[in-house]
């Protein structure tokens, strides 16, 4: 978000919130990061606002005036003191139907808030909270492209099957321990642009991330039991980077799909892969005796 105002040069946590007086009548982006605000009583919230950033304050409740900002597209409450009770009112903010980005990162949430009113939501960030379950995620708009839930207490992936437009999913540093025994994982056609959160799946034998938006292969070095790897129909440029990324399973891999990637146009494509993976039995549709 663009900075429209600058925080005071010094803040004193023992003092009352500092009065803020600006002419904001035509402002579209308001950044109040690190103003140490306990509330927004002293802040004008003009109806022209499209972006409101309240990062790193001490807010424990939502100012009801925000619900009337009909032009708002981006809203951040990152690093405040908002809990489940405080966030409940957001479920009735129907005037914010055009909201595209909602950041609730680093607060005191223990469950996924109801954001079903925001039918155009593209970015939803509830990372660095104390959320124990993804229950309620099914109400999030299917328009969502980025979902951040890292650094919580989530134990199970659920209620995200409808997010067909999702490009970024961050679930790192949770408690997805039941996935450790997973042997096969199919993630094709999900719009994934980066491979993350796979390193703990040490029993994985089959990994299908075909038909996504990958430009490289990441986070699979620990997967020493990998036998089938489907990477076709992505945007992966380098065979060498693939070899390095799956070095842990180089001897184990028997099937690799890489067709319809830029790297598949490399000279001696199949010969190179057969050198990299000595026990390979199939490359794309080609099967070797």
From TrEMBL:
<dbReference type="InterPro" id="IPR032675">
    <property type="entry name" value="LRR_dom_sf"/>
</dbReference>
<keyword id="KW-0677">Repeat</keyword>
<protein>
    <recommendedName>
        <fullName>Protein phosphatase 1 regulatory subunit 7</fullName>
    </recommendedName>
</protein>
<keyword id="KW-0433">Leucine-rich repeat</keyword>
<dbReference type="Pfam" id="PF12799">
    <property type="entry name" value="LRR_4"/>
</dbReference>
<dbReference type="GO" id="GO:0005737">
    <property type="term" value="C:cytoplasm"/>
</dbReference>
<dbReference type="InterPro" id="IPR003591">
    <property type="entry name" value="Leu-rich_rpt_typical-subtyp"/>
</dbReference>
<dbReference type="InterPro" id="IPR001611">
    <property type="entry name" value="Leu-rich_rpt"/>
</dbReference>
<dbReference type="InterPro" id="IPR025875">
    <property type="entry name" value="Leu-rich_rpt_4"/>
</dbReference>
């Amino acid at each position: 978000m663009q900075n429209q105002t600058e925080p005071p040069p010094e803040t004193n946590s023992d003092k009352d919130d500092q009065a803020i007086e600006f002419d904001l009548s035509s402002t579209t982006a308001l950044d109040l990061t690190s103003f140490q605000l306990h509330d927004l009583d002293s802040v004008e919230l003009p109806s022209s606002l499209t972006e409101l950033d309240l990062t790193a304050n001490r807010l424990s409740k939502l100012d009801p005036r925000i619900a009337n900002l009909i032009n708002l597209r981006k809203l951040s409450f990152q690093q405040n003191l908002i809990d489940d009770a405080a966030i409940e009112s957001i479920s009735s903010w129907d005037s914010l139907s055009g909201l595209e980005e909602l950041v609730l990162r680093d607060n005191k949430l223990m469950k996924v808030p109801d954001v079903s009113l925001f039918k155009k939501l593209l970015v939803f960030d509830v990372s660095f909270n104390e959320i124990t379950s993804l229950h309620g995620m099914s109400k999030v708009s299917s328009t969502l492209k980025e979902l951040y839930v890292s650094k919580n207490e989530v134990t199970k992936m659920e209620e995200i099957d409808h997010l067909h437009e999702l490009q970024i999913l961050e679930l790192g540093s949770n408690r997805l321990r039941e996935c450790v025994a997973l042997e096969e994982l199919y993630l094709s056609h999900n719009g994934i642009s980066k491979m993350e959160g796979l390193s703990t799946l040490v029993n994985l034998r089959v990994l299908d991330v075909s038909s996504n938006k990958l430009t490289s292969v990441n986070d699979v070095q620990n997967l020493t039991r990998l036998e089938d790897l489907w990477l076709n129909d992505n945007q992966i440029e380098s065979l060498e980077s693939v070899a390095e990324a799956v070095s842990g399973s180089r001897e184990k891999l028997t099937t690799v799909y890489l067709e319809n990637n830029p790297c598949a146009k490399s000279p001696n494509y199949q010969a190179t892969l057969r050198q990299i993976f000595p026990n390979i039995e199939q490359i794309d549709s080609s099967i070797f005796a």
